[in-house]
Amino acid sequence: MKKFIFVCIISLLAIQLESFPQVKAGDAALGTRKYEDFQKAKFCGASCHVDFYQQWTQAMMSQAYTHHWDEIEYFKLAVPHAEKDPVVAGVKAGCNGCHAPISFLAGDVPPPLPEKMSMANESVNCDVCHTITGFEGDVPYNFNYISQPGKTKYGPRGKGNSPEHQIVKSDFLGTAEFCGTCHNEKSPYDVWVKSTHLEWKEGPYSKEGVKCHNCHMTNAEGITASMGTKYPDARQHLFHGAHDPGKVKGTIELRIYPDIREAEPGEKVKFTIALFNQKTGHKFPTGSVEDRIVWMHVEAVDSKGNIYHLPVDRKGFDGEEYTIGTDVLAYQDMGIALDDPDFKGVQRDGIPLGDRIFRMPYFDPQGRMTIQQWNTKSLGADYRFAPRETKIETCIFNLPYDIATGELKVTAVLNYQKLVKPVADFLNVLAEESEIIKVNEHSTTITILP
Ligand code: HEC
Ligand code: HEC
Ligand code: HEC
Ligand code: HEC
Known about the structure:
Strand content: 15-25%
Distance between the termini: 100 Å
Shape: globular
Mean pLDDT: 95
Largest sheet: 6 strands, mixed
Low-confidence stretches: 12-20
Bound molecules: heme C
Number of strands: 21
Number of domains: 2
Structural class: alpha+beta
């Protein structure tokens, strides 16, 4: 009898749920909307939100689907891989949950190529963000945002008169969790392969109430629509990150100093470098960590202009070999998509041997380093800069007997590349994606005695 009543209650509940259909989120939202449910950014920005529109067109947000490297990675690697390997089959649709949300919600898989100029090219546009009302579950990740497109647009104030749409106040857009729905990602092997929001949450800034918005959507006096009120704190839609060299520059500050100021040829001098992360609210590098490479190069120049490269001293931690420039091959799993099962891989780092690399390596199911975050089964040592962290490195220099006497200048430079150069070259990615950005540098001097 008890069992019967229990079954009845459950069935009643089920009927109830069905009559109030919930808005689906994450993978389940695939194909739950139509393209016509969304406006194009140009519609929002042509005459009303001119400033925000122009800012957005210069941010990666507007190119999340069309950007050359995204197109290559999705169509050349991810889609063919998904068609061959059932474990990763879901990414054929899933990449678009974050990169072309409108196509994902419309169930268009794979979306038309960028050259077709379809709605997919809207990437992450105004109407995607301003119709998100929350997220499903406890942790924002893998596009688990709740999208409710329509005449109602959600914003921070809920004020203002628009001839085009209703404005409803939502605090959700102002939270870091909103950003986290796309800026945290788990691979099909259940590994965190993107964790910008999680890194922020465990770091100092979240405790101080400094959000993503404070650094990427800064407040300034201005209007938010052409006919609108002037506010002292209008949210600038800058979304500047790795593709803005100015944002990356100065992220880490370097100070280098010797243990002795005067030395003779044949002596050992220890140079210590303190590297301080003064700028990021999450780790550096963050986001597409599988692609990024940050490395420190130390060089000494004697009074005759001879140059000596100083390799970094080893610290001896587990997995350190992935944090020192070397000439081994990696990324063999690109061979799956490229139909070359014997693919030998390309150079892992493409930087001077012996330089210190600040990274976290991603490994495929065979334990080889990969840039395919969807094919990531485990992670290596996390040797990135946490927010406000200072790392100490040393380089011991055995002064050669033929070194010139006089001043010896030693410089530490921290460099950054969005995509490891050998991979960029192999896949014909535009040069700007592997351009070297100098994050910072510092020099010191010692005197070489005769
Ligand atoms: C990636 C998501 C995202 C995109 C894309 C986006 N916005 Fe926003 N927008 C936000 C967030 C977040 C806020 C601020 C929310 C807060 O502070 O609570 C905001 C604020 C606004 C505001 C109110 C500003 C204020 O200070 O009152 C307007 C108007 C606006 N956006 C229009 C646009 C338009 C037009 C576009 C397209 C050109 C656009 N947004 C694209 C996320 C986005
Ligand atoms: C205290 C300032 C600060 C805060 C807070 C902050 N960021 Fe950043 N962010 C930066 C700086 C500086 C960079 C440029 C250096 C870099 O690429 O990491 C950056 C870079 C990025 C990048 C580009 C990373 C890449 O390699 O492409 C993304 C994406 C990003 N931030 C998202 C976020 C999100 C999401 C949050 C909130 C969860 C956030 N940021 C919070 C300062 C901040
Ligand atoms: C609907 C998904 C989505 C949401 C929500 C979202 N982003 Fe993004 N964002 C992306 C994607 C996808 C990219 C990468 C574009 C590319 O390079 O292909 C990106 C890129 C960025 C970049 C530029 C990184 C670079 O390489 O220069 C910054 C900064 C950034 N987002 C910050 C934010 C912040 C801050 C928020 C919250 C206010 C936010 N994003 C919300 C999907 C989203
Ligand atoms: C959970 C959301 C999400 C999913 C799913 C996702 N991405 Fe991304 N992707 C992002 C965000 C956010 C960034 C920007 C991070 C950053 O700036 O480092 C990004 C960056 C990239 C970049 C680097 C562009 C650059 O900055 O140089 C490529 C390429 C890319 N994604 C391709 C893919 C492919 C292919 C898939 C599917 C296998 C995929 N992404 C799945 C959110 C996602």
